[in-house]
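Query form — protein NADP-dependent oxidoreductase domain-containing protein

QUESTION: What is the three-dimensional structure of this chain?
INPUT:
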Amino acid sequence: MEKLLDTGKVKSIGVSNFSIKTLEVLLPQCTIIPATNQVELHPCLPQFGLKEYCDSKGILLTAYSPFGQGNPLFFKDPDFIAVAENHKATVAQVAVSWAVQRGTVPIPKSANVERMKANITLIKLKPEEMQTINDIHKKPGMHRSLLAYHASDGTFFDWTYEQLGWPMSVGGFVTA
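ANSWER: The structure tokens for NADP-dependent oxidoreductase domain-containing protein are given below.
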């Protein structure tokens, strides 16, 4: 990918779904640091450790799924809804604003014009509201993990969880 920069066909290069561990393998081999690491990132999977690591390396985190996947759990959370109501905003607007205020780049998807407009209307969240959202994933049943991606043999596209740097809990569940 680094060679593409010399062609002038691309302005920057990035990676996707890299953990701290996989970045630690990649970065010593790079002459150009990736501009971004595109990952699943939202209030139920906030990726705090990865964010801190990427910040320290000058890598911007891009949230390809700022609302979660499928049925976003936090869209029904009373505390999250209260923050949205306090700003006369949608839960989606709060999620996008939270992501931006953290210094990440959310890329929400919608085919609905009204939702598209709402998704680009940011609100300023208070520090205590940011903390409320930061803590959503700690509530029982709210933490999203990468468990959906596991294979019965304990691999992900032939990589072991250890190679990927995905932390495992007791019982073999991916916790990041």
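ADDITIONAL NOTE: The first strand starts at residue 14 and ends at 16.
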